[in-house]
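Reminder to self: tokens first, then the designed residues, so the page reads top to bottom the way the pipeline ran.
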């Protein structure tokens, strides 16, 4: 059956309809492969949308044929040009050195971390004592009973040795309950004059409350020389408190430790309530920050020193308590819970 001769207007309508469909498909192609598929669909020689139209031109009446042919060629060329232009755009995007990110976008904040408030306080305390001629000494956290208790003049039946207060390890070792064993270790190694500051963690079978934790930091101080007296102790610790807390008032109360005689505790006026009484200072207006005293002669002898010739003083401070006061942290536990929202806000 002979195919009917299409009219010129029908032909032109169909031609422009195909061209209109091609344009958005060309523009939407995101890769060379996708663009090639569009090319085959529209101008592919055998099955492209435009190829039946070129057959139509041949069948048209002699009067319409030139106009139809011209229109066809022009449309075909335009589609080819659009394909070429978009191919160039795809190529340019692929090889462009321009970053594919929007540099004007605000950056994402990066959590940089902060020093722990207790660490900050330890460093500050160390700086103050360093100015006074103290050096830093460290000791093991797993200790023997001899260094932790016996050499420090604890009697064998002292309640601190009880399983309820001390964490014992397999094989007879224990987790040191204070930094005082480093007094012995230091005196065994270095002859007087000795002035050391010993920061470290200590362990006790305590449950967490507002002012207790099973693991906490301590700073030991020890000064041993000829002619050292309680005056040196009191003057040094008072100087420290003035430097560290500024105008804070301090007081010394008599106390007892097996390894010092006489012994005392130093309180600072509670910085949280300024002495008027709050939960942190248990309504007394004062907070105990350290125990201290003159080194007991039998401690010097345990370390092999002549207790007739040498005297010394020592203290054990709780930098957690100090940090609580400095940073206004009513609950001690917050310092040891590791919550970055708390620690990051306090740290520097
Ligand atoms: N070791 C004592 C404690 O943990 C503190 C202290 C140290 C007291 C040095 C006197 C001298 O409580």
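Designed residues (348 positions):
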């Amino acid at each position: 059956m002979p195919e009917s001769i299409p009219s010129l207007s029908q032909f032109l309508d169909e031609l422009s309809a195909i061209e209109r469909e091609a344009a958005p498909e060309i523009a939407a192609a995101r890769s060379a492969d996708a663009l090639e598929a569009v090319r085959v669909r529209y101008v592919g020689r055998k099955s492209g949308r435009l190829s039946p139209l070129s057959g139509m031109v041949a069948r048209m009446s002699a009067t319409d044929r030139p106009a139809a042919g011209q229109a066809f060629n022009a449309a075909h060329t335009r589609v080819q040009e659009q394909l070429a232009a978009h191919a160039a755009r795809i190529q340019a995007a692929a090889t462009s050195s321009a970053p594919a990110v929007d540099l004007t976008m605000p950056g994402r904040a990066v959590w940089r971390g902060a020093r722990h408030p207790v660490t900050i306080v330890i460093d500050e305390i160390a700086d103050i004592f360093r100015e006074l001629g103290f050096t830093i000494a460290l000791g093991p956290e797993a200790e023997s009973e001899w260094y932790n208790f016996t050499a420090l003049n604890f009697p064998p039946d002292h309640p601190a040795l009880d399983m309820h207060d001390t964490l014992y390890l397999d094989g007879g070792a224990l987790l040191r309950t204070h930094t005082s064993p480093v007094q012995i270790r230091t005196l065994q190694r270095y002859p007087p004059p000795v002035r050391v500051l010993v920061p470290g963690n200590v362990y006790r079978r305590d449950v967490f409350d507002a002012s207790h934790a099973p693991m906490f930091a301590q700073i030991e101080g020890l000064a041993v020389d000829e002619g050292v007296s309680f005056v040196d102790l009191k003057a040094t610790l008072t100087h420290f408190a003035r430097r560290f807390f500024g105008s804070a008032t301090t007081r010394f109360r008599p106390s007892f430790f097996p390894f010092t005689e006489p012994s005392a505790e130093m309180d600072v006026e509670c910085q949280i309530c300024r002495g008027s009484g709050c939960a942190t200072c248990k309504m007394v207006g004062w907070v105990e920050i350290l125990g201290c005293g003159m080194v007991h002669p039998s401690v010097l002898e345990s370390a092999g020193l002549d207790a007739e010739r040498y005297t010394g003083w020592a203290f054990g401070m709780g930098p957690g308590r100090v940090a609580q006061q400095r940073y206004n942290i009513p609950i001690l536990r917050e310092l040891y819970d590791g919550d970055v929202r708390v620690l990051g806000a306090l740290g520097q």
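The longest strand covers residues 215-225.
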